[in-house]
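#structure-requests
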Amino acid sequence: MEEMFHKKSEAVRRLVEAAEEAHLKHEFDADLQYEYFNAVLINERDKDGNFLELGKEFILAPNDHFNNLPVNISLSDVQVPTNMYNKDPAIVNGVYWSESLNKVFVDNFDRDPSLIWQYFGSAKGFFRQYPGIKWEPDENGVIAFDCRNRKWYIQAATSPKDVVILVDVSGSMKGLRLTIAKQTVSSILDTLGDDDFFNIIAYNEELHYVEPCLNGTLVQADRTNKEHFREHLDKLFAKGIGMLDIALNEAFNILSDFNHTGQGSVCSQAIMLITDGAVDTYDTIFAKYNWPDRKVRIFTYLIGREAAFADNLKWMACANKGFFTQISTLADVQENVMEYLHVLSRPKVIDQEHDVVWTEAYIDSTLPQAQKLADDQGLVLMTTVAMPVFSKQNETRSKGILLGVVGTDVPVKELLKTIPKYKLGIHGYAFAITNNGYILTHPELRPLYEEGKKRRKPNYSSVDLSEVEWEDRDDVLRNAMVNRKTGKFSMEVKKTVDKGLRCGALQRPWEIFLPRECNH
């Protein structure tokens, strides 16, 4: 298993080196014209039979390794989100220099034929995927996929973080502004992963915790908690006067208290402020809680078209190592929310921390190939190994520019193939968990409701080890694995015999093994 982890990590590392070298040699050209293979437009023709722009002929052939999907194993192609202009200079330049990854994609596949999808998700929004495959829009002609919202991208691009989201619900936020604010909060939640902790506070003359039962603390940003908070967002309504000073004091106190307990991410901390204006810069509050160290970054989102209070919000963000952006319409939300990830990634970029990240097990039905790449048991359970790509150009190195994230998918069944079952014995089995204690692979992990069906359980990707190893009542085994300890110990378990008619107790030995190439 360790050898397999090493091979996947090395494949990703080669992609990182090639991408950083290609970008180092590239000079940005605002007038660059480059015809690339757009994954949506390839092989498309107009009414006269001519290929569409960016839709040149792209040879696709069924391939056994990819479940007979029509792919091109010589080239990659590029997907651009529907809400982005596919000939934007930033995208065209990024696509141009990232063409050099084609050789590395092919070379990786030659070295390790067990590899499946390899890809580069750009910080500009485009997604280069190998082997090349055609993407089909949904019934509305839209492809909502944005690689920057995927867990593998977020985990590789940023460090774990504690976040307090402050939402202005004063009377001036009525109508469309409050709708945009709620969507902004929802988009921020999309960017949080299992390593992050958060809470949401609405404010006017008083503070209103979105979940009143969780006053004064932070909760893990797992799927269940995020969905719970989303449901409570609908209960917010606008009235009264916005007292931002009270909200800022509360947010700083929560982050300070939570950090002192040793809980949470014990890493980056941030306050997200969503409002239609601020009448003051509140420098006395920042001087009390955040200066001179500025350990808490402030990100300000100005809702609406008016810019009367923009200067105050800009100052607050810049004085606290954050970022300011204005969101005028619902269409602006996603792109503007993503900007904060680039700011939080700067320390990793400046320190050149190329950490290898492995995600929890998941079934990705977002990509078009995932709908078809299925085995006899339904959709494929997989994990992703990813690594960030940084700019090494001298003029940008000190600014900490994240170029994107490279990754490759690893089906869980490939992990299981590496387990020497003949060494485990008749009642023995192997399993793996993430750094959060969630199951990566385990005989008792059943992500689907019915065998052979494709209907997934809502929280299948965040099943804790304690939910299946129930004999581990004191979490001795789970905590040892999460804390990256290795060694052997035994634990009494009950086992049924005679087809479940009788039950007997036995001492089961356990051995914990930590592959060097993995953070699980």
